[in-house]
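Re-running the complex after MR caught last week's input typo. The corrected sequence lines follow. Everything else is unchanged.
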Amino acid sequence: KAGVTQTPRYLIKTRGQQVTLSCSPISGHRSVSWYQQTPGQGLQFLFEYFSETQRNKGNFPGRFSGRQFSNSRSEMNVSTLELGDSALYLCASSDGTGGAKDGYTFGSGTRLTVV
Amino acid sequence: GENVEQHPSTLSVQEGDSAVIKCTYSDSASNYFPWYKQELGKRPQLIIDIRSNVGEKKDQRIAVTLNKTAKHFSLHITETQPEDSAVYFCAATPNAGGTSYGKLTFGQGTILTVHP
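Corrected-run output:
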């Protein structure tokens, strides 16, 4: 089956701008989780969506938001970008039942650089 | 919330040796423990996972052990090869609903280098 697809792979944005990242999960998976990966903080959970509803949220400011569409594709948005938002943003796909039958499969990520 | 500590942060071994990476977790409700391998510039890939109803799981050269009483789990790689060189992350989650949905708490990672 096709893997998790994230677009774009790379982005360069200026401070103060906003950005939208996209994630298409594995076919049949209804849960999409988002993570921020930085050298200093490691992998940190942003939020999780299931059936178009946010079920869980990490400790990030309100500038970070997301949504999920009826086809399970998810987008995350970061507004008023700061230099510290530079990171690899990863999404993970799962069946979302809590039993994690298939585990969590990660996409290749979007590398965001804020200048 | 859950907190996962991973040791060591770097590990250097000779080809053919064994490598062991250890993680401890804080939330006794955690019941799913995956391990991911991340090569430079690539996505984290699940290499093995274990659920709380078993104490050990093996897949060829890789094994994971879990001690729920002590709240720690370990990754064991035998007969290491240069292509095993990567960053390895452990993670934990209650995975049982509520605020645990979709949330893996990761360790800080271990940089494994296998010298030929």
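None of the earlier attempt is carried over here. The first strand of chain A starts at residue 5 and ends at 7. Chain A has a mean pLDDT of 93.
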